[in-house]
From TrEMBL:
Pfam families: DUF624 (PF04854). InterPro entries: DUF624 (IPR006938). The lineage of its organism: Bacteria, Bacillati, Bacillota, Bacilli, Bacillales. Keywords: Membrane, Transmembrane, Transmembrane helix. This is DUF624 domain-containing protein. The chain crosses the membrane at residues 32-55, 81-100, 112-135, 156-175, 181-199. It comes from Neobacillus rhizosphaerae.
Length: 207
């Protein structure tokens, strides 16, 4: 009898197996939606903000639909996320290109490589809060950048941990390319748990 109850609970809609399958499905589908939304390259920021829009609702335990909410977040945040995301993408791409180019020029340019790495780290650090803020609050671009910078350094442990997680997942994806099917959305989900703990200190009304 006990064994039957355990098996029934395991496979029920409230059971851990069902919840795990739903999590895997949502992570895969949101990763796919993010990839499709990012195809023009300059819209990577828009897709990322839409991803945080969905996961923000999930973490706050609000009702959500991965498809309709992703599209809603994509449309509503387009004007703000597009320019910021495009600039971030260009800066990161240019810095990474410079690192590889400088690496071929010898040890005399190690300090320039270090400077490029510093720029990349700063951009990633601030970006931890940029897109969740876009997904959560309607603010001017300058205010988004200013508040993201303040939050990134005021909560440096969380922002640095999020950057470290991103780097670790990138390295893991290089080792296991199949994880690329889940990579972006998995990172967004985990980082949202950290970020929401910070944002709820400053946002009174949970939406």
């Amino acid at each position: 009898m006990n064994g039957g109850k355990i098996m029934k609970g395991l496979f029920s809609f409230d059971g851990p197996l069902y919840k795990f399958c739903v999590l895997v499905y949502e992570t895969f589908m949101l990763n796919l939606l993010w990839f499709i939304g990012s195809l023009p390259i300059v819209t990577i920021g828009v897709s990322t903000s839409a991803l945080y829009y969905v996961y923000g609702k999930k973490v706050r335990e609000n009702s959500y639909n991965i498809y309709s909410d992703f599209i809603k977040g994509y449309k509503e945040n387009f004007k703000q996320a597009l320019p910021i995301g495009a600039v971030i993408t260009i800066i990161l791409s240019f810095s990474i290109y410079n690192i590889f180019k400088l690496n071929k020029m010898g040890s005399a340019y190690l300090w320039l490589q270090g400077f490029q790495l510093f720029i990349i780290f700063q951009i990633l650090l601030i970006s931890v809060f940029i897109f969740p803020l876009i997904a959560r609050i309607n603010m001017k671009l300058i205010d988004i950048l200013k508040n993201s910078l303040i939050l990134a350094y005021k909560h440096i442990v969380i922002s640095a941990t999020s950057v470290a997680l991103l780097i670790a997942l990138i390295l893991f994806t290089i080792y296991k390319p199949s994880f690329g099917l889940f990579f972006v959305s998995f990172y967004a989900l985990v980082s949202t748990y950290f970020i929401e703990k910070v944002l709820k200190r400053y946002i009174k009304i949970q939406t």
